[in-house]
Design goal:
single chain, 139 residues, alpha+beta, Double Stranded RNA Binding Domain, 2 domains, 4 strands, 45% helix, elongated, TTHA1013/TTHA0281-like, Antitoxin HicB
């Protein structure tokens, strides 16, 4: 999952915005530092969407003048899991019940700041009758 960001000069350095996520704004003194900050800000923004039970938009195609910023794999899976819950009309409590776990375990599965085991995330998808597939691309 990679989002296109637009980096422009700002009064104290550079600022990045994302067409797909209007709440996203990253800034720093250099372009490289702005792009590094963008990863953390993307995670935070996706976390807000998850917490507010809002659908996380699929990344749009890159346009001229934009750069791609990759979301860490764990966060991308949590975003996809959140969208799956919304698509199926499930609440976190429904997933916890279906998985046979306590609600705090599902809360942690959807917390972008918690280091969830991939097996636990896969199990959640499996419980919802979905399969996770991963692809490797040339960088």
């Amino acid at each position: 999952m990679r989002y296109a960001v637009h980096v422009v000069p700002d009064t104290v350095g550079y600022m990045a915005t994302c067409r797909d996520l209007p709440e996203f704004i990253a800034a720093a003194e250099t372009v490289d530092a702005t792009l590094e900050n963008a990863v953390e800000i993307l995670e935070t923004t996706l976390g807000i969407y998850i917490d507010e039970r809002r659908r996380i938009p699929t990344p749009s195609s890159i346009q001229e003048g934009e750069q791609l910023v990759a979301v860490p794999l764990s966060t991308a899976l949590k975003a996809l899991l959140s969208n799956q819950l919304l698509d199926q009309g499930w609440r976190k409590a429904d997933l916890a019940r279906a998985m046979g776990v306590h609600a705090p375990q599902v809360d942690r599965l959807l917390d972008v700041n918690h280091k969830s085991k991939l097996a636990a995330i896969e199990r959640a998808f499996d419980t919802m009758h979905r399969r996770v597939e991963v692809e490797v691309e040339v960088a």
